[in-house]
Amino acid sequence: MAAEALTATEYIKHHMAHLASAHQGSVVDFSIVNYDTIFFSVLMLAVMFFLLRAGAKKATSGVPGKMQCAVEMLVEMVNNQAKNIVHGDRTFVAPLALTVFCWVALMNSIDLIPVDLFPAIAGLIGLDHLRPLPTADLNGPLGMSLGVLLLLFYYGVKVKGLGGFVHELFTAPFGSHPALWPFNFLLNIIEYLAKFVSLGMRLFGNMYAGELLFFLLALLGGFALELSSIGTVSAGIGQVFAGLVWWLFHVLIVLLQAFIFMMLTLVYIGQAHSSH
Fold it and tell me: Tens digits of per-residue pLDDT, 204-217?
């Protein structure tokens, strides 16, 4: 009954609220934990490991099945991209790229599930709010971006040595003259920060917009109930048609954003292997 009384604005606000440790009163508050983001992120990671492990266990040297073909094509695609971008030891980089692509794709795919399903289930067990899409929570994409940033520092030191890495921070790209050191250092720090922010914000922005549009399409069905019989039919048909079209298009966005995140991760790690 409370859900039926919600206005359009209240409906969207309710669905965009997280199951969190406390209400967030400011833009940045590191003391708050979004439990739903953590839960669904870990859940999708476990699903990914289960699927890949199942594909590996069923692998045979004979005629491959559909699952084996799909996994082999995916692994070959990721390995080829890693080989073309990262010129160095790819023992860890290629599996990392595969993990990133599969994990982000599975997290994004939660957005293809009807928007009212998980909040309704949460209501049955006494939870007021539940937002299941981890990549539409800025904390999720920025957390993954932070992991990529730490890998950039790791590979920068591993490939060039600590002295070479620090030397490059202060001497590239303008030159090694001492007067240029502050400018070189500032520019490199800005470059690292830009990679960190843009990598996370790109994924977050696309998934946030897609999620919001699904909310608006869901509201169209509720709006149909307030119209006349002809208006109800028209709005209902419009919701089904628009929802189906956006759902099919969003499948492409789900995979494309996972691919872009993986490719940028490889590009940044590849840059860490090279010198200016």
Answer: 999 999 999 999 88
